Amino acid sequence: MPEALNLLYTLGDLGGIGPEIFFKFTENLHHINEQEWLFNEHVKIRLVDDLSEVREIMQDAGLGRATKASGEHCYRTLKEANKFLLDRQYDFLITGPVSKESLSLAAYHYSGQTELLAALNNLQSSDVEMFFIVEDFRVLLGTRHIPLSSVPTVLKENFPNVLGHGITFLKHHLKISSPRIAIAGINPHAGEQGILGQEEISWMSDSISSLRNEYPEAIITQALPADSLLAEAARLFLTKKKLPFDLYISAYHDQCLPLIKGISGYGAVNMTYGLPYTRISVDHGCAFNIAGKGLADHAALVACTNFCIHNSQLKHS
Hints:
- This protein is an alpha/beta fold and about 325 residues long.
- It is built from ten helices and twelve strands.
- Helices cover about 40% and strands about 20% of the residues.
- The mean pLDDT is about 95.
């Protein structure tokens, strides 16, 4: 018999498509009460947002833009959701998309929900990681929401932690005893031996050698040209063939995410690893330009829910 799961959801930014996709998602589910639904007989869904507050904010603030009211609401719901998860009342947290601008307007200066949830748990940003996963194609971001000019410095500092967290996730949670990990270089063609950039030879090579000694059970590549590395993964994924690596480390946010989103549609999930629980999020933003127009697709919430169902071993991890 499948394991019973209790899933907690947030709507995300009230000016975006978060409310629309959630209520499209739950439209045909069995309704228990105003804030609870059954996805199936083994999976219960609860919305943490206070719907009377949601209606009031949406009426006053409107749709299609970032607002202070939405940012304040996002913070309150995430804080409440975090408490529920810490109390083990729910197995996974699934979050709707949030605008960084709304959070900033409300004086919560975080680069995203990942960092906000880390702070609520007295963790540093480097203690948590952002994975994007679609089936067996897994990407871990070496750096997240930072300017491109900061990537080399931040990646150099975070690289050992990022790779260590990735190996831990694969070994202890996915039970892959000898994980295979591919490293995407920062520069075009992985620097062409220093001609197009120095990072791959000035520090990445030495860091990878040290990490191989620290994690002898793992197979870790040198820094490889990102275009050919990720293109090969995409081709194999689309033709339903086995990928050669269990995890791909992307140097920066936009190096891999256009590809992941392009090949998966709304099938990928954003997973935060390193919290006292597992948080899953949709792989898209607030889409202010279509908010309230009935055009938003709720497939990403279905993907998040199915991910939790098929990876129940990750709850409270």
